Amino acid sequence: MSTPTTDGAEASEGGATADRSRNSYLGEVWVNFKRWNLKAVRNPFVLIVSLVQPVIFLVLFTQVFGNVAGGAIGGPGGGGPSYETYLVPAIAVQVAIAAAATSGVGLVNDIENGMFEKVLVSPMSRSAVFLGKTAAELLRIATQIGIILGLGVLLGAEVGTGIVGAVGIVAVGVVFSLWFVGFSNALAVLTKDQESTIIGANLLQFPLLFLSSAFLPLEVLPEWIQTVAAVNPVTYGVDAARSLMLNADAASVFSASGFGTVGNAVVPAMAVLLVLALVFGGVAVAMIRRASSSKVQ
Q1: 160 vs 164: CA distance, rounded Å
Q2: Mean pLDDT, consecutive 10-residue segments, the chain of 297 residues?
């Protein structure tokens, strides 16, 4: 009597264990999404710090360089947009970079406290781990870009395409951030060190911003900067966001045809950014997948 009972209990226990280990892929993404959101809520310092620098840039650039830079873009006396309107899309992209740069730092924190090793020995898909973490960070980036847009409007910026355009600018910032999130996480797995990850991400942040169309039109910049800007992802993110802001084709490198005035700039820019996101995201997932418990110690 006892044997069947014991076997049945074991079978039941084993079945429950098997059920628990057979979480769906979306369920694994959701678990990681919740975990990283809770982590962000419990440590709002990271969210605030990654937002402060772009806010300082927005206020100082518009107040200190507004008159000079405004002349370079032909407004407002020349009929062009105000510098606040011109600058806000660049600051939205800067927010995306700054927030994405902290993504790898969170992963290093997991490595240092042993959580990453626990995840590696779990039956969860490595790509689900990365997607859940990335989705939580994209939610944070979208919120921060929304705050910047609101602040920009308070300072006098105008969104030419209205609410739909504002949502589009947030979407552009989110898509733009994907490649840098992948880069930051790959760097974290490679260095396994917070300081190295922060230095590596910040080392790229400012050159990428200043060697692009973020702060001034490419036509008024030196030729070598124009050459670098043509292959700089920031140029494509800023051009797409700026086109939505100005309700015009603001492409600096190339624009398509047949998608409407704004779409001709947005569509090719988004295509470039999505390809970059796939490449860097794929590298990050591959590096997390190849990581082993012995390697992360």
Answers
A1: 10
A2: 42 47 78 86 73 79 73 69 89 88 81 77 79 87 90 90 94 93 87 82 86 89 92 94 93 86 92 94 84 52
Q: Residues near 225 by Cβ (< 8 Å), separated by ≥ 6?
A: 211, 218
Question: In 3-state terms, what secondary structure has residue 26?
Answer: helix
Q: Which residues contact 78 (CB under 8 A, 6 or more apart)?
A: 71
* CA 133/CA 39 separation, integer angstroms: 11
Closest CA to 130 of 157, 158, 103: 103
**1 three-state secondary structure:** coil
Helix, strand, coil shares, percent, the chain, to 5: 80, 0, 20
Q: Which two tokens stand for residue 175?
A: 């898509």
pTM for the model stands at: 0.80
- Give the 3-state DSSP-derived string for 211-255, with helices as H, strands as E and coil as C: CCCCCCCHHHCCHHHHHHHCCCHHHHHHHHHHHHHHCCCCCCCCC
Q: What are the angstrom distances between the C-alpha of 280 and each of 26, 152, 275?
A: 22, 31, 9
